[in-house]
Structure formats: structure tokens, C-alpha cells
């Protein structure tokens, strides 16, 4: 017990003064700060001995998550394996995918039909009953840790479900709980907010407030009417949400994804996005984590360009998030697929490569959400691509409405007035595997598989941590059955949230099948990535300029090793002269290649290592 107390006190002493200063700056409440510190110690004491040992081990290697063997996979528990116990049984499959970080999509208790995919939490300390229990979650984490795997979950801190206990009591008119949200008995102040705050879902959930006639009040609901924004001006809200955070960390979480980070502080007369107080809150979260559970990593969901999300990393002296999503590069990648033009992607990657190596981005091709076309339209305009027309082209292309497009998918949140929309589909369907299968066209299927693998090879070569979306490893296509479900049919995002097809997984070793070809190619790429030191987090990465606007060339260096990746985003075969010297070997098949005569089929790629 003495060693345990000493460890906590040492960590607390390291952070106490700054934590108190920030807390008092925000809240000016000594009593609430004292309560927070007391509760942090209680959660520390409740932490399992194995988890405390994991904390101490990772304190010695705080950049453990940056290692080149890190590979994540996002999955919905019910779609993947039914429930938490099912996921535990499927850990050997995930190991065969080289996955060592499992991102469980939202699994906390939510109301049926009013959950926004699990992001309307009714109880932060209860697993959705059909998925299991908190004991099942802790056991899954334990089994993952024994296999040297990590577990990631979402922490939805901007809002609660209207079914959460606080919201239920607020709806009854209890002032203590109304103060935990933004309630107004007339529309004057909400109108002032609406004048400056953008709408998140202007077509499906317009406005930022919902009127509750039974109590004659308006409540702030930035996302959906059943998701009530929390009022972080109230120190009780911050404290209680931190207790929930620590409770979940104590179930064995290794990575906690903070949902909708920029929204969590509201200020009248602003856009209520990215305000300075948000950084104060995230910084305090980071310190609280380092005191109680330092093995836990914070992943921030900040949907902006990399250079604009940088503040969410904090500074070297005062860090905030450990990792952030590389959202803009993802969207730019699909723009590149549709245009066969890599210029914007090169510019985007150059921006990322210029950032300090201490910044860690999470890279992905697809996720549970839609693709929003948040591109650099000022630059695109220089190349003749106007924003409105280009967004319409991208959506038409990926929906298969443009001649020559092989993609299939559906629009999300379409605004018929502005002509704007977002897009939903699996990677395989966007690459043409769905349409080629429907047409029974073997040549188109070969090309689609090649495009799918090329995009994964490109994603795996980016600097940061790669994240797969469950099903992509076996080429799973869109699932349109959501249209028959009464609580899902209006949300087209469910087109790529279908149940995992275990028949495809059974064929993963059969190279005569689509799933086998994709799985084995990705497996080879992932194994190479684990072996080659050019994929270390501190390796140098840059873009090699080539004259062909359809071809992207990425170089990576670590000490004396150099690797070059060449990716053909065009439809036709190319012969590329890469301006490098020396002998290079193809890492996929071991063959020597002439670096000045690199032949690539349409949507082909090559990973080359200098000998």
C-alpha cells in the first residue's frame, strides 16, 4: 500500500500545481477541485494490479503506441461477433489480421432507435444489454492484454442521451440537473446562438436547439434532438464526466477516443467550436489520466485539416491529445481516386510531413462515418475545380452516376438546395468490387482488387498509425439491408456498417477468391511494415515529385535504409522514371527492379527498397 500511495503522490505532485491553476481559472471552485483530487485517488486505488503494472511499464516507454507494429481495426461488436464474449472468441482471427489495437465502436447503453449509432449515451457505466456487461468488457481487455493487444473505446463527452438520468431529471424541472445542460425558458438566447453557430446536420437535424413543450424550455442539441449538449461551465459536469472517464479506463481501456472534441465548450457570440477552454479541458484530462492511469492514450476526434488540428496535440511541455485523426488526407485520397490527379494529395501530404515527428496521426481509408468533402478548394480552384460543382462531381462519381465510374454507394445528409452531400460506402464498393461482382466481369474485378490493395499500400506507407475498418481486410461490399430496418433506414451510413461476412473470412487463405487475394496482399504489406525500420515513427518521409499527375511517389528514410513507394491512381499502365540512384528490390516479391523503368498497371503500386 505504501508503494501504491507513493506512486500516486509522485504523479500528483508532478501535475498538481498546473492542474489546480487551470481548474481554478475555469471554475474558481476550491471545494470541487478538492473533491476531484480525492476521487482521482479513489479511482487509482480501485485500479486492477495488472493495470497498475501496465501503467508503470508504459511510463518507461511513453511512446509505445508509435511503434511500427501498431495496426488498428474499427468494428461494431454486434456486427462482428454478436457480443463482447463473441469478440473475445474471435481474437485469434484479429491476430491473423496482424491487428493489435481493437477499436470497439460505441457499446455503452443507448436508447433503441435514438442512438446516432451509439453516440447518444444513456448510461456511461453500463454496456448495452445485448452486447454484454462491464465484467465482459474488463475480461475482454484482460484477454487482449495477455495477447499484447490494445483496446480502444469512444468517450462521448459533448452530450448525453435525453434518456440519461441527468436529462430525465432535468426534464422534470430539477434545477440542479437543468444546470448540467443549456436550458432557456424563451428563445432570445437560443436565437443569439443560432446567429453564429453552424448547423451540424442542416437537413436531418436543423438548428442547434430543441423545444420541450412539456416544460416550456429550449435545450441545446447541436447534433440530434435526442442528444443534449452538456454544460462544461458547470464544474459538476466536468468532475462527473472525469469520474466516468476514469471508471471506463479502469475496465482496461488502452486508448480512449474523445468524441467531438472541438464542440465541448459553448460561448455566446462564437461558433462554439475550438474555443480556448476546450484546450484547458483536454489538458486537464491528459493530466488526470497521467496521474491515475498513465498507460491510457487519448485519441481526439477533430475533423479539420492537419495544420489546424495541431493545437489539439498541445505542446511538448503541456501535451493534450496523444493522437489525432488524419481526416483531410482521407477525404483527399478519395478525391484523388475520382480525379486521377495527385496534386492536391501531394500538397496535403507535404503539409503533414513538415509537422514535427512528435505529432501522431491515425491514418485510414474508411471509418464508421460518412466522407465529407472538406478539401482545399482555394487550391483546387487554381486547377479549375469550383467547390459546389466539384462536390457534386465527387458524389456523382462515387454513387456510380458518372460514365466510367465503378464505385457504388449512397449519399448522406443531402442538401437539395445547396447541392451538397456526404458519401457512404465500403472501401471495396468504392474501388469497384461490388459493381464488378454484380456484372460478373473478371477483368473489372482484377482491376478493382488491384485498386483496393494499392490504396491500402499507400495508406500503410503514410506516417502515423494505420487503422482498418472491419471487413476491408476481406473486401466486404455495401450492405443495403439497413433499408428494411425501421430505426436505420433513414441513415445511409448503415450501408457500410453491415454485419461482418464470416464466409469471406473463411476464404481468406484461398487465393482464388476476392477475399483471399485482398487478405493475403494486405497481410504481406503489414508484415513488411513490421519488419522494415523505415516505418519507425521517427523515420523521415517526403514526396518525390514526378511529372505524371496520376502517379504518387512516397519516400521513407531511416539511417541507411531507403524505401520508395510508387502508386498509380490512373486507369492505364504507366512506366515511371523515379529520380533515385542505386539498386532497388521489390519488397512484395523480392525481385530487382530498374528504378528508372518502373512499370505499373492501372491502379497498381510497388514498394521498393534500396539495396
What's the quick description here?
With 611 residues, this protein is α/β, with parallel strands linked by helices. The protein has 22 helices and 25 strands.
What does this structure look like?
The chain is an alpha/beta fold and 611 residues long. Helix content is 39%, strand content 18%. It has 22 helices and 25 strands.
Itemize the secondary structure elements and their pairings:
Layout: H1 2-27, H2 30-46, H3 49-60, E1 72-75, H4 77-81, H5 84-89, H6 91-96, E2 101-104, E3 108-109, E4 123-127, H7 134-146, E5 150-156, E6 159-161, H8 165-171, H9 175-178, E7 183-184, H10 188-196, E8 209-212, E9 217-220, E10 227-229, H11 235-249, E11 255-259, H12 276-292, E12 297-300, H13 306-309, E13 323-325, H14 327-339, H15 343-354, E14 360-364, H16 377-382, H17 387-398, E15 410-415, E16 420-424, H18 427-431, H19 433-439, H20 442-461, E17 465-469, H21 502-506, H22 514-531, E18 540-543, E19 551-558, E20 561-568, E21 574-576, E22 584-586, E23 592-593, E24 598-600, E25 605-610
Parallel strand pairs: 1-2, 1-17, 2-5, 5-11, 11-12, 12-13, 13-14, 14-17
Antiparallel strand pairs: 3-4, 6-10, 7-9, 8-9, 15-16, 18-19, 19-20, 20-25, 21-24, 22-23, 22-25
Helix pairs in contact: 1-2, 1-12, 2-11, 14-15, 19-20, 20-22
Supply database-style keywords.
6-stranded antiparallel β-sheet; 611 residues; 22 helices; 39% helix; 25 strands; 8-stranded parallel beta barrel
Mean pLDDT, to the nearest integer, reads 96
With helices defined by DSSP (H or I, 4 residues minimum), what is the helix count? 22
Global Rg: 24 Å
* Amount of beta strand: 15-25%
**Largest β-sheet summary:** 8 strands, parallel, barrel
Helix content: 25-40%
- Order of the strands making up the biggest sheet: 1-2-5-11-12-13-14-17
Number of strands: 25
Give the termini distance in whole angstroms.
55 Å
Name the overall outline.
globular
The class by helix and strand makeup works out as: alpha/beta
Uncertain parts: none
